[in-house]
Amino acid sequence: MDGEDLKKAESFIARDISQSEVKKTSTRFDVQDLYKIDAEKLSLNVTTSRYSNLAYIQVTPRDVTIDFLEMPGVKRDGKDVVEATRIYMTHVAAQRMVRSLGTLLERVYRDGGMEIFSSSTPEIEPTTEVKRNVEEEGA
Hints:
Blueprint: H1 3-16, H2 19-25, H3 31-34, E1 54-59, E2 64-76, E3 79-89, H4 91-110, H5 134-138
Antiparallel strand pairs: 1-2, 2-3
């Protein structure tokens, strides 16, 4: 399409769609309505199911990243390969997850459905170091 054809097309479009027509066809809607969920019509589609025995968590000013790891991994081509699933979430979603998980773990512990857990366990400082008991190494 050369310059003259482009001008003709623009003129045709401008003539066909006047400002008044745009006002007649425009609608208003609340974006929040798009995200409302009817619990009765909700169907969960679990696409992946993995086991994790270690999580590596990173927090940035924009979001939270959790790598769920399957330790200790396997040797492939002379390298230790650890399978992982990475989840990104907002700070608010992470805070809600922490609150929900804490509440659920407390309830299961209280009902006697958990092998080892104590809400009185002292805070553990996050670290990347692995600590082993001498007894475990000999076993």
